[in-house]
Amino acid sequence: MEAMSPLERVLRGIALTLVVVFFMFPIVWIFLMSFQTNETILRIPPSIVFTPTLDNYAALITGKLQTAAGTLDIAFMRNLGNSVFLSVVSVAVALALGVPAAYAFARHKFRGSEDIAFTLLSFRFAPPLLVLLPLTQYFQWLGLSNTYFGLIWVYQLICLPLILWIVRGYFEDISADVEYAYRIAGHSWFSTFRKIALPLAGPGIAAAGLLAFIFAWNNFVFALVLASADKQPVTVGALAFVTASGIQYGQIAAAIVLSITPTLALALYAQRYLVEGLSLGAVKG
Amino acid sequence: MASVTQTRAVPRGFRISKRVLPYVLSLPALLVCIGILIPFFSAVVYSFQRYRLSQPWARQFNWGENYLNFFTDSGFWNTLRVSLLYAGTTVILELLLGLGIALLLQRRSTVNNFISIMLLLPLMTAPALAALMWKLMTNPGFGILSYFASLIGLENFRWASSPDTALLTVVLVDIWVYTPFIMILLLAGLRSLPTQPFEAAALDGVPRTFVFFRITLPMLTPYILTATLFRLLDSIQQFDIIYAMTQGGPGDTLTVFQVEAYLNFFQSTNVGRSAALLIILWAITYTLSNVFIKNWLRLRERARGEA
């Protein structure tokens, strides 16, 4: 491993370059496209030489999109707001519900605890439509269809199992002796939970919350089935751009850039937590 | 933190008995999920009914007819075939690629760490949006990939709009999004392997192919299995990429389980068939995930035991 022949070094370099190009190219290309007009996008052969314009973003922000047939009102900023609201509130609710439950599963082997934990985990693996399609009818009866409340409730299916399983692993890693010592000193279980367990599991809770946020943001099918245009997040809203005919391609690209920027920025900002969360969630639990 | 508000309602000095406490803590989470379990049972009931949204008056139990009909239903066999093909191709290709990239990045260096962080980005892109990005790149009019295809002699390569290449196109998007997932897991695995066997092998001058197949691969197997099953479960249920890219088309080329069930429900309003399809998919994933969870628990125990 220490000594690499020059040939091997070159081959590795080429392989890594190809990998980076394949995985980065789409993001870079769409980013470039978002600063172009139809005129420069439609050039053949394509070229990366163009005068950048912010028109596409301006059109999205004002909600008036230029199409071949005139202007079209699409409230994309509303979609963006929905995404932020749905993801933030869903994660907050999931943390409030999931962290105490994870603590219970980690600290107390109570009757049925493993079964319950498995049931919750199995949500992660069930086909979402199996629940969503009947749910459309229940939501109609309950008056929950196309409400934020209903959507956030259903988003718990994504966030809760994730938080439960990652945070549980962190709680299990905290030595019970530390907590016991604190209890012996006359503190209640609740202050033990708050003063000892929560801070020690802090990084795990952060990782789980971050992952849950990204999963919630990236979710597509829940809102596709349960929300109409005014409550839809960006993932569903952007689809309307492609199906609506004649929208300028640069505007579609700009909408995609705005939709993926938050998760990508978060991922870069907190990549260490993220990798830890991903691999814990999958390997260690 | 949020539990502060939850428990503050409990008067000071009130002691929750040790036996009840875990239930109290996990109950809210359970209640939220149980509410969502009810539709699951409705889906089971629907799957045993003749139930079309267009003919609500004709709704009645037909006990298994939806399932029996599948045997003679070429649409169903197409769904099964495409789903398995999609899952099989994506998982095998992603595994090979992910393993290759993880091996390339194994050594800790600034460049390698930077690249592995960059590779997180596709994984953090919403699959539905990733499909739209590739749709823009494969547009026959101005798509850069269509242009590249024409450069290597593939004039009029139609990507997702031709039945011959639609599967290839969505598989490509899946690979773009999810290979980094496998790469991350395997890289974590590779870097956590004990170094002694490798040092010993290097001292003895053991050939590197031998080291790879006899030491690296066996030691990495638990990670490979986990990554594979995780991806397999996701991939056989893939909806976002395929729906955003082609909505199951052209024709019925890409009507995988969830896409077919969605179209059955909302377009042909055949709720019974849609539910039966999803139950079959659920049976497949349930079997797979049981295998997965057992394997996972063993891994966890092993990780704990050694740590």
Automatic annotation (TrEMBL), chain A:
SUPFAM superfamilies: MetI-like. The keyword Transmembrane helix applies. Its main location: membrane. PROSITE patterns: ABC_TM1. One of its GO terms (cellular component) is plasma membrane. GO terms for biological process: transmembrane transport. Keywords: Cell membrane, Membrane, Plasmid, Transmembrane, Transmembrane helix, Transport. The chain crosses the membrane at residues 12-32, 84-105, 117-136, 148-167, 204-229, 249-270. It is a multi-pass membrane protein. Signal peptide: none annotated. It is found in: Cell membrane. Belongs to the binding-protein-dependent transport system permease family. This is Sugar ABC transporter permease.
From TrEMBL, chain B:
The chain crosses the membrane at residues 20-48, 84-105, 117-137, 166-190, 211-233, 275-293. GO terms for cellular component: plasma membrane. Signal peptide: none annotated. Gene3D superfamilies: MetI-like. Keywords: Membrane, Plasmid, Transmembrane, Transmembrane helix, Transport. GO terms for biological process: transmembrane transport. InterPro entries: MetI-like, MetI-like_sf, Sugar_ABC_transporter. Pfam families: BPD_transp_1. Residues 80-292 form the ABC transmembrane type-1 domain. It is a multi-pass membrane protein. It is found in: Cell membrane. Belongs to the binding-protein-dependent transport system permease family. This is ABC transporter permease y4oQ.
